[in-house]
Amino acid sequence: MTPPEPTGAQAHFRALEALYAAAPINQLFESALEIPEPGVARIRFQVDPCFFHAAGAAHGTTYFKMLDDAAFYAANSLITDRFLLTTQFNLLLTKPLSEGPVVAEGRWVSGQRRVFVAEARLVDATGEEVARGTGTFMRSRIALAALPGYRSE
């Protein structure tokens, strides 16, 4: 027996997860997005040595990408019609990130009309926070339903 198709918010969350997986940039990162509830997003990924800078730890682009994505999807989980765009993002890097599993946890903070604020943190395999960030995101003119990969069943 096949499980029933998700509806409402759950269908939107699954469609955003499919959109994340379909983005060409995510072919470079072994990662998976999960949206368990409105305003919350979690990305599990593997830091690979190919992301290291010359001193043998993850380059800052890795931190930014995962923090921005987690905060973005936490905010975009709250609206079903438009794609959000990052307009600003602040980072605080507190510990070098080495090879292994990492989780980016994003949470919506405020805003529900045009501009949204969301934050995210990176947690390493030991459970320690290694970075955090806060971003602002605004509604674009891009319809989610028009994007390849967004599959709302």
TrEMBL record:
Keyword presence, Hydrolase: yes
Pfam families per UniProt: 4HBT
Entry-linked CDD domains: PaaI_thioesterase (cd03443)
InterPro entries from the UniProt entry: HotDog_dom_sf, PAAI_dom, Thioestr_dom
Keywords: Hydrolase
First and last residue of the signal peptide: none
A molecular function (GO) term: acyl-CoA hydrolase activity
Domain Thioesterase residues, every copy: 56-130
Domain of life: Bacteria
Alphabetical list of NCBIfam families matching this protein: unchar_dom_1
Protein name, entry field: Uncharacterized protein (TIGR00369 family)
Gene source species: Sphingomonas xinjiangensis
